[in-house]
């Protein structure tokens, strides 16, 4: 999937206010050094961009400099960013990765070439040995640990296992639980999130979610990095050991379609529908998708842990007031990403004004 550049945050965190009549004193404080792994991922690249913008020295690890060339080139030219090519399965590389740094943001990935739990434990132990002062790990819940147990989503449960290990280590840590990405939506035939073009210029979203199921959302590339950097600024005294839900809106499928309708100026409707898998998917992902149907859709288990549901947007919005909602994303960003992916509907331009649209949404 080709990736369009998502416009970054609209304002810089804590812009310095100075008296123009005074010469600023030279800054002799060495820059804070941050390690970010899997740097071309949606979450990690957002953190790299914002950290660079506010003066962090960033070590951005990626598995290969020859993949995702557009994003790699973008990150390479950011100030104070050093790209480090290396495998997280290479223990020698991992042992050196954090040495001399003070902060780390880690989002492990369930790729076929790695054991996510082993990788997560290896990174945490190396960070502890290197004396990392604040380690932010992107985690998710294991629904089998809820009371009562509600089954399990295998690709989320691995992250929860790593979280428990980090807690046992005593590493100064915070755990962010990230909502569903805005850019999950695509006209490509991806399971759960496809918006299918219609002959009238509109779209239909067919998925197994109940019409009133609350889904937490985040524009990951625009908003996650700013929130994470604010957590680092607040420090472990404020956020040590805590789970922070990073979602700026909680929307039902009907509300999502309404936001897309207003943003695009086209009718967008939701249709409850059994899970369809019409494209090749990575090994193990079918189990995850079937778990989503069973645990979230049928049992209506919460997306985050039960104790986090009430504060799903409150904390995130306090961390980063400049967040972008679904309607704005649909209007300003989604068409750009669709054009980059070669979507044919783009050629027809914007169709029906929102005021003239019919239908439930």
From TrEMBL:
Keyword Membrane tagged: no
GO cellular component, one term: nucleus
Extent of the signal sequence: none
Keyword Nucleotide-binding: no
Region feature Disordered, mapped onto this chain: 1-32
All residue ranges annotated as the NmrA-like domain in the record: 32-330
InterPro entries: NAD(P)-bd_dom_sf (IPR036291), NmrA-like (IPR008030), NmrA-like_oxidored (IPR051164)
Keywords in alphabetical order: NADP
Family: Belongs to the NmrA-type oxidoreductase family.
Protein name listed in UniProt: NAD(P)-binding protein
Originating species: Tuber magnatum
Lineage: Eukaryota, Fungi, Dikarya, Ascomycota, Pezizomycotina
């Amino acid at each position: 999937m080709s990736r369009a550049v998502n416009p970054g945050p609209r304002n810089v965190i804590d812009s310095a206010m100075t008296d123009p009549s005074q010469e600023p004193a030279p800054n002799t404080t060495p820059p804070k050094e941050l390690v970010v792994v899997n740097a071309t991922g949606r979450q990690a690249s957002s953190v790299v961009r914002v950290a660079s913008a506010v003066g962090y020295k960033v070590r951005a690890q990626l598995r290969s400099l020859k993949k995702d060339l557009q994003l790699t080139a973008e990150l390479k030219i950011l100030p104070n960013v050093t790209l480090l090519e290396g495998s997280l399965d290479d223990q020698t590389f991992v042992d050196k990765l954090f040495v001399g740094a003070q902060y780390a943001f880690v989002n492990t990935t369930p790729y076929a070439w790695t054991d996510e739990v082993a990788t997560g434990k290896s990174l945490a132990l190396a960070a502890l040995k290197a004396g990392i002062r604040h380690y932010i790990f992107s985690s998710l819940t294991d629904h089998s640990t809820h009371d009562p147990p509600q089954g399990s989503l295998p690709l989320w449960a691995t992250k929860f296992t790593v979280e428990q290990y980090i807690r046992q280590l005593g590493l100064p840590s915070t755990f962010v639980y990230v909502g569903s990405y805005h850019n999950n939506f695509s006209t490509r035939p991806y399971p759960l999130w496809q918006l299918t073009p219609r002959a009238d210029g509109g779209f239909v979203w067919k998925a197994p979610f109940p019409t009133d199921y609350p889904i937490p959302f985040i524009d990951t590339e625009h908003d996650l990095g700013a929130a994470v950097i604010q957590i680092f600024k607040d420090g472990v005294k404020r956020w040590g050991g805590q789970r922070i839900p990073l979602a700026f809106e909680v929307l039902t499928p009907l509300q999502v379609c309404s936001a897309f309708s207003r943003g695009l100026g086209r009718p967008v409707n939701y249709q409850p529908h059994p899970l369809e898998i019409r494209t090749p998917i990575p090994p193990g992902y079918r189990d995850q998708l079937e778990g989503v149907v069973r645990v979230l859709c049928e049992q209506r288990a919460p997306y985050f842990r039960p104790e986090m549901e009430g504060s799903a947007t409150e904390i995130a919005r306090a961390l980063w007031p400049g967040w972008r909602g679904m309607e704005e994303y649909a209007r300003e960003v989604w068409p750009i990403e669709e054009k980059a992916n070669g979507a044919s509907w783009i050629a027809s331009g914007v169709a029906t004004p929102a005021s003239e649209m019919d239908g439930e949404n």
